[in-house]
Amino acid sequence: MKKIICAGCVCLSLISKAFSEIDTRQYVDWKNFPNIVKIETGNSYQDAYCTGTEIGQYVITAAHCVEGFDSFTILKNDGKKLAATIKSKGNAKIPKDDWAVLSLSDDPQSKYVLSDKLSFSGSLYGFGALRILTDEEILKMRQFLEENSYAFLDIDEVVKLLQSDIPGVGYIYNDGDRLKKSSCTNIRETNKGIEATCVASSGNSGGGLFVDNNKIVGVVSSGDIMNEGVTFAALKSANDIIQQKQTCDENFVVNNIFKKEIEYSSHKKIGAYYQVIGSKDGWGINRLTDLCGNVIFENLFLKPYSIEYNNGVYKFITKPLPPMLSCGTENGLNSELFERIKQIDYQIILIDENSEKDAHKSRRISIDGGKTFYTTKEEVSASMFTEEEKKHMRKEWKECLKIRK
To answer: Which residue, of 216, 261, 335, 372, has the greatest Cβ tally within 10 A?
Structure first.
């Protein structure tokens, strides 16, 4: 979990002098919570999974849990594994926007709903790796930390101590398979997101903050190691995404908009979008629409594997195509570019929202996994050559690539 190593346990073990029921979390039977799931990202070195909650045919979790991945495995309480893909996500770097919506192939009939109405108290469920500690164990932890002069150490050094085998206690982060409930109080909305007083640890990321038993008002984003404070992402945007899907009759859209309004049309569903190719009124079209058939972009002319939307920017993952240049046909440049592009696995294209719905505008392209983006085919092409190669490049190639050095 982002920033959470032992939220609450340090403060409780070091500051509190009353040791009765210090760790108030409870183990609960996962069988009684079939819509709370684990999320496996394919990250084989992770010690703990993230937590997610099924809402209809979707799973709500944290955006930082799904960073860098396109598909996921959802682990259910009956041992079943379900495939999931990203439908939409917020900004993982901003706690209040750290939400993600994953799409499932079927509807597990969840009893939970999203809500924006906060209560003073609630509950957090998740697969935090920190095991529930007895009062005696917390006493021994305090003694161990005091013997190691914790008061003079920085946070990272305290964390390192807690991640060691503590005498008489052992290793405390080995409990990510068991579902735990943490009671939360002082739930309030701040400029950081939704904050509450409860205990969480690595593995709780993406877990839901529940009020009134079945209403989820936030998902775990981060926590503060020196107190019990946990910050949750608000779910208004996630709820808007889900409601948009629920209000669309996709069969009607396909049969009455795509097939009737567009001649010779073909359509491909990509996550929460459709790519529609055909002709209308004698003009060729290549559109991106939402699931309701509303046009997002014209002139798409891409074949994306996946599409994500975040803060006004659409992200397309596509197979890299050689940026054929009109000036590179006769002099062999295009042939060289074609060979070099074969070594690249994929490209990322970012397109900003624009009022004219033209996908050719505000387009940025990356062929290095998103480290560097370019706006022209010439810049993309030139990036495939080293600086040394550019120095000794043929004059006509330099001119074609607009290299001025």
So the answer is: 216
- Distance, in Å, from the CA atom of 52 to the CA atom of 308, rounded to the nearest integer, reads 19
Give 276's strand partners.
267, 287
Helices (H) and strands (E) in the chain, counts: 10, 22
Residue in this structure with the two tokens 């396109």, named with its chain if needed: 70
Task: Express each pLDDT in 241-285 by its tens digit.
Answer: 777 655 667 777 887 777 777 776 788 888 778 999 988 776 788
pLDDT (tens digit per residue) in 155-194: 778 878 888 899 999 999 889 999 999 999 999 999 899 9
CA dist., res. 286 & res. 267, Å (int)? 10
Nearby residues of 172 by Cβ (< 8 Å), 6 or more positions away: 6, 9, 130, 131, 133, 137, 141, 162, 166
Residues 6+ away with beta carbon under 8 Å from 95: 192, 193, 221, 222, 231, 232, 233
pTM over 0.85: no
Grouping H, G, I as helix, E, B as strand and the rest as coil, residue 380 is: helix
Tokens 């002139």 belong to which residue?
Answer: 299
